[in-house]
Write a structure and sequence with these properties.
Layout (H helix, E strand, L loop, with lengths): L2 H22 L7 E5 L3 H8 L7 H10 L2 H4 L5 E2 L6 H4 L26 E3 L2 E9 L5 E7 L22 E4 L3 E2 L2 E8 L4 E11 L5 E10 L21 H8 L34 E4 L2 E4 L9 H35 L1
Parallel strand pairs: 3-10
Antiparallel strand pairs: 1-4, 2-10, 4-8, 5-6, 5-9, 7-8, 9-10, 11-12
Helix pairs in contact: 1-7
Length: about 325
Amino acid sequence: MPARRRTAAVAAVGLAPIALTALASAPASAHGSMGDPVSRVSQCYAEGPESPRSDACRAAVAAGGTQALYDWNGIRIGDANGRHQELIPDGRLCSANNDEFKGLDLARADWPATSVSSGSYTFKYRVTAPHKGTFKVYVTKPGYDPAQPLAWDDLDLSNPVATATDPVASGGFYTFSGTLPERSGKQLLYAVWQRSDSPEAFYSCSDVTFGGDSGAAASSSAPTPSASAPSEEQIEDGAGQSTVEHHGHGDDDASTSAEPVAETESLPAGGANDVQVAGTSQNLAETGGDGSTPYLAMGGAATLAAGAAILFGSVRRRAVNGGARHGR
């Protein structure tokens, strides 16, 4: 085989596993949770995944493990496209029907809660990778029993307490206003963030107490901790143990990558936001960009692998045919 053909064959064989590696290593994209009122998963992460203080968070870890807390910004459905009730059954709302987060679905009256009052309220959603979309926050109906599994019918779905489309992220948070209705005692706020640049949606449960001590557990003489969001230091410290995206953390830069680079790939000089594929630098996702970009990247990797295989086959056929001709 001439040297040129041998070089092409080697290149083809070498490209295929690289392309397949890029395809197989496509990361989960996950980007936030309610920060105020603090969500259950954020509360438990703030307490410490390995040794949470509250009984409820300890029970959540016992049920689902610590990884769910390190993945606090990952309660999502990639292809939700507004089909929230269709995809999430009753009793699984806080986990978005994801087994990793099943501990958050535990029906308990002692989840640490944020103290709130009826009237105007400023919501803060902690975001680690901004995207265009709409937030809707729902409150439970009067008579809600936190000791029973949360069902869709428990939420006042016809009257969201807050709706915000494309709010501007600042300081690592989306901030938007809403109005809390008259309620009393322990209630729950359910937040849905449906992206408009992708079918992906994110979910969170925030326990609140109207007109009472947020930390007092009715069935215990010892009060549970009041709800508190994780600090920036805690988020940074735990990012390395998370399996989901933390790029864009506390960053208002519209070009922040929403997908990490696969560990097997070499980072280009431009940084983690770019991936070098066959000599081409491609930004995998941008704030407000097309949410299908990661899937296009995956498709590109598959196409690259297929092309490499075809090239190798073509080179091999030419070599065989050439050898046959020379043998005649």
